């Protein structure tokens, strides 16, 4: 067992980091926001953490917090104008952010070392740390879904007109989704920097953007489990079947097409729906709660019978 763990430890770390990025993408899609800025926020978190450690001499823990806050602040500033946009306009604006950040990391050579990236980063985020962070984030997102924030996001995703008629402020919850997404992406980037010794601009380009989006669509975008399942599937297959390692983008495209055609709700969401339907079919009809209208009609039918019995007895 330990040999298996040590053999695939780097794969486990990669899955855990990308789980954070997938959950970042999941939050905005759950709120009906078409954001593609996860890779940009992750780059800010990663480079902020790496530069604070290697050039400013900060402690790794403080640098990780600062990198996460950098993602939070940048997403908060971006959320103000983007919460007024919809659909493809949000996608184009966040894609422009990714391109700006990527250009800065490649061309600001005096700060970021250009295409060579930043090296000499101490590895302080091991598998245990990454797993603990992912578990905490999952618990927080599950808890969020059970309260008014998560329910409001669900209503907005299904129909903004209905959300407005219920008094839900759509721009307000879009801003919340942007900020949470930026925070998780910044945290994922910071942990990626402190778990891989070095980072380069190519890690945060179009491939990361497509991977995070594909993971959520593949697993399902209505539950946090969809993001986790999509991450495990999309990250593990090319590594376990090395024949496809050189065709990662092709595999991603094929999987995405198959899921959209045959499982439009995603793998995890479809399985959860099937399990829910199966559980409902197994529930006995007598054990199911009776509707109030049926109960009232039943009592109304009994009263005339009882009354007629009483009249017959008196006569």
Descriptive report:
The chain has 315 residues and is an all-alpha fold. The chain has a single domain (2-276), classed as ABC transporter involved in vitamin B12 uptake, BtuC (Orthogonal Bundle). Helix content is 75%, strand content 0%. It is built from 15 helices and no strands. The chain has helices spanning 2-7, 9-30, 38-54, 60-82, 88-107, 109-112, 127-145, 148-158, 160-165, 170-193, 206-219, 224-240, 248-262, 267-282, 292-314.
The CATH class assignment is Mainly Alpha
- Mean of pLDDT: 83
Biggest sheet statistics: none
- What does the overall shape look like? globular
Terminal CA distance reads 86 Å
Q: Please provide the ordered H/E string of secondary-structure elements.
A: HHHHHHHHHHHHHHH
Query: What is the C-alpha radius of gyration, as a whole number of Å?
Result: 25 Å
Our estimate of the beta-strand percent is: under 5%
Tell me what the CATH architecture is: Orthogonal Bundle
Per DSSP E runs of 2 or more residues, the count of β-strands stands at: 0
Number of helices: 15
Name the features.
globular; 315 residues; mainly alpha
How would you summarize this macromolecular structure in one to three sentences?
With 315 residues, the chain is mainly alpha-helical. The protein has helices at residues 2-7, 9-30, 38-54, 60-82, 88-107, 109-112, 127-145, 148-158, 160-165, 170-193, 206-219, 224-240, 248-262, 267-282, 292-314.
Please outline the helices and strands.
Layout: H1 2-7, H2 9-30, H3 38-54, H4 60-82, H5 88-107, H6 109-112, H7 127-145, H8 148-158, H9 160-165, H10 170-193, H11 206-219, H12 224-240, H13 248-262, H14 267-282, H15 292-314
Helix pairs in contact: 2-7, 2-10, 2-11, 2-12, 3-4, 3-5, 3-10, 4-10, 8-10, 11-12, 11-13
